[in-house]
Request: fold
Amino acid sequence: MFQTPRTIAYTLAVLLVAGAMAPVAANAWPLGTKTNPDTTVGQTHETRVSVQIHNKSKQAQSLKVEGEVYTVPAHQTLTFKAPLGTVVYADSACKGHGKGDLLFSFTAEMKDATFTID
Reply:
C-alpha cells in the first residue's frame, strides 16, 4: 500500500525533470529550426535594379549589358534587371553615340526608370 504513492511520486519527478530538459534539448537539436545561428545569412538585400530601355529610332539598336549583346528593335522597349553598378555600352553606332560608348550604369536612383536611345 505504501508503494503506490512512492511510485506516483517517482513518476511525477521523472516527468518534471524531462519537462525541464525539453527546451534545452530542443535548442541543442541539430535538425531543429535553429540550424544556422548566423542571422545575417538569411537577410538578403535587393541589389538588382530594373530599367527599361526604349528605342526611338527607325533601326534596331544593340546594347552590351554584362558582356551580353541585346538588340532593342525599332520603337520597342526592353526591360533589364541587373545588379547596381552594371554598365551598359552601345554595341551599334547611331545618332548621339558610337559603338562602345558608355550609355549609363545601373544606380539605385534608376529603379523602374525608362532610358531612351535614338
